[in-house]
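We were asked to recover a plausible sequence for a given structure. The inputs and outputs are reproduced exactly as logged, with field labels preserved.

PROBLEM: sequence recovery
POSITIONS: 559
GIVEN STRUCTURE:
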């Protein structure tokens, strides 16, 4: 039966019980390591901001080389594993111990090993968006953050009205001069009580003091605050409970490392200790979602932890639990809904064959439906009520249509191609766009790519278990939409598929190495995302092709 262990299969946690306390202790050490006092958020002086940004770039590149070496070692272990899959090979236990040790090292490398703090203490720009945007969401909504923040700084004489050349209007995502933003900010201010406005001014000043001039200029033309309603509900409670100048902010921004450690432990429960080690390796060495970019930014990666826990629950046959966790992950970041849909597709296939709804399908639907009902109830009980979903849909539709240099997938590749093809002027303006025939051609190519990936997925669907149908859904994301680079940590789901098809592990590790090499070659250059998109699409197509073939005998250590 899909997701259930075979009778008599050996349990890797029993076979390698001595490794469990070692791995758990190491993970907890990494998660609990304190931030040095000099780097605590409330002690990060403005004079150190420029040096901190330079340090981040240096650490990014230096640790990328270290992680590349870890991926190389992992590739060697993976190749060795394919050659020693026999159950009576005594080297399997040694290899498993090496995978776990490398997983712990990779997890630690993500956090710069024993320098367990983000340069500058925390991710200042991202934490501003998540902390201030959620704390004052009742007053700001999705559109008022930049306008109100600029007004607060001008009122405190921390900035002059014309110090910035442009400020983004978050309703349209177009940029205008600062005078228009100040006028919008005065309208936003009316939603604040006087005491609440003073608190908002103080919080904005805290972050302003920790931004370099270059970061500040970019800050006001970023894309604003757009988490899903479930995240808004959670973030508002966390931010209102933790004052911005409190040492507790350090612990708030470091919650992700606990969530991800818990997710890796869940993978060990669902798939075995060795698979958990591989997941730790792939996630910990990922260049696209590296710590220097998105680390310590207030519960930014909870969606990934929930996704891995949901897939692990599905592998263990806990369908209701899988439905709940996959829906929660989707509620935080939307695009993980493809994994829930994949799980449902696998169960619907089984129900179609049986000519009646299968019990796993009913349990999956019950778990998902109960979670949706809870989320709607929480939204209805919180200002602005259930209408937040309507506002979020408008916001995310506008954001999705906006071009961004670090988006990845079919659409960004086509957009890059369009930039090299003929353009035409829009009547009555100086704006140009791709010629009509170019736009028609690119749209046709986009649909052809989506059809090709969907065909590969449907070809594989009859051969896989339901949890595999969910995990391999990751391969559809680059064709369906265009997530920004740091969301591609979802490829960790592909590692779970390697327990039955080990060549997938080689593909994922190879993609990880290529992403790192590509990132080092084009560090912080827009060209990086073209190469990264090519690698992502090749990985997706390769995994789907492999899933369409019959699996090799399951590894007994992982069965």
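RECOVERED SEQUENCE:
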């Amino acid at each position: 039966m899909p997701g259930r262990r075979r009778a008599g299969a050996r349990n890797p946690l029993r076979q390698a019980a001595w490794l469990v306390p070692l791995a758990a202790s190491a993970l907890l050490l990494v998660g609990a390591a304190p931030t040095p006092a000099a780097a605590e958020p409330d002690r990060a002086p403005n004079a150190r901001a420029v040096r901190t940004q330079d340090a981040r770039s240096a650490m990014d590149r230096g640790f990328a080389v270290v992680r590349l070496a870890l991926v190389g070692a992992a590739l060697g272990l993976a190749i060795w594993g394919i050659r020693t899959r026999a159950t009576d090979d005594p080297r399997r236990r040694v290899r498993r111990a090496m995978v776990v040790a490398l997983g712990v090292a990779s997890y630690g490398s993500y956090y710069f090993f024993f320098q367990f703090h983000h340069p500058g203490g925390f991710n200042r720009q991202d934490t501003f968006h998540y902390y201030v945007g959620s704390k004052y969401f009742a007053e700001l909504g999705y559109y008022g953050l930049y306008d109100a923040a600029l007004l607060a700084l001008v009122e405190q004489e921390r900035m002059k009205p014309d110090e910035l050349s442009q400020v983004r209007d978050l309703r349209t995502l177009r940029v205008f001069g600062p005078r228009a933003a100040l006028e919008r900010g005065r309208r936003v201010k009316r939603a604040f009580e006087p005491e609440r406005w003073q608190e908002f001014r103080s919080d904005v000043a805290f972050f302003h003091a920790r931004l370099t001039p270059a970061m500040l200029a970019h800050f006001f033309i970023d894309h604003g605050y757009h988490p899903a309603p479930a995240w808004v509900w959670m973030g508002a409670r966390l931010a209102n409970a933790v004052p911005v100048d409190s040492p507790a902010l350090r612990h708030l921004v470091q919650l992700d490392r606990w969530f991800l450690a818990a997710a890796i432990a869940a993978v060990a429960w669902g798939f075995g200790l060795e698979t958990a080690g591989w997941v730790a390796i792939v996630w910990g060495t990922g260049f696209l979602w590296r710590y220097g970019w998105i680390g310590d930014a207030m519960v930014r990666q909870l969606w990934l932890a929930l996704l891995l826990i949901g897939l692990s629950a599905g592998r263990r046959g806990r369908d209701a639990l899988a439905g709940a966790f996959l829906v929660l992950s989707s509620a935080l970041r939307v695009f993980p809904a493809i994994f829930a849909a994949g799980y449902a597709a696998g169960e619907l296939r089984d129900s179609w064959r049986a000519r009646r709804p299968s019990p796993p399908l009913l349990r999956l639907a019950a778990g998902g439906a109960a979670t949706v009902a809870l989320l709607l109830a929480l939204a209805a009980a919180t200002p602005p009520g259930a209408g937040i979903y309507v506002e979020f849909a408008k916001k995310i539709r506008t954001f999705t249509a906006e071009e961004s240099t670090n988006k990845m997938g079919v659409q960004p590749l086509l957009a890059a191609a369009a930039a090299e093809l003929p353009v035409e002027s829009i009547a009555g303006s100086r704006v140009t766009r791709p010629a009509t025939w170019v736009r028609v051609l690119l749209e046709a190519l986009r649909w052809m790519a989506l059809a090709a990936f969907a065909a590969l997925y449907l070809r594989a669907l009859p051969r896989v278990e339901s949890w595999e149908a969910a995990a391999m859904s990751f391969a559809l994301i680059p064709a369906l939409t265009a997530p920004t680079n740091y969301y591609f940590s979802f490829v960790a789901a592909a590692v779970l598929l390697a327990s039955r098809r080990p060549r997938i592990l080689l593909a994922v590790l190879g993609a990880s190495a290529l992403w790192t090499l590509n990132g080092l070659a084009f560090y912080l250059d827009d060209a990086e995302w073209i190469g990264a998109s090519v690698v992502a699409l090749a990985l997706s197509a390769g995994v789907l092709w492999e899933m369409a073939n019959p699996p090799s005998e399951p590894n007994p250590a992982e069965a």
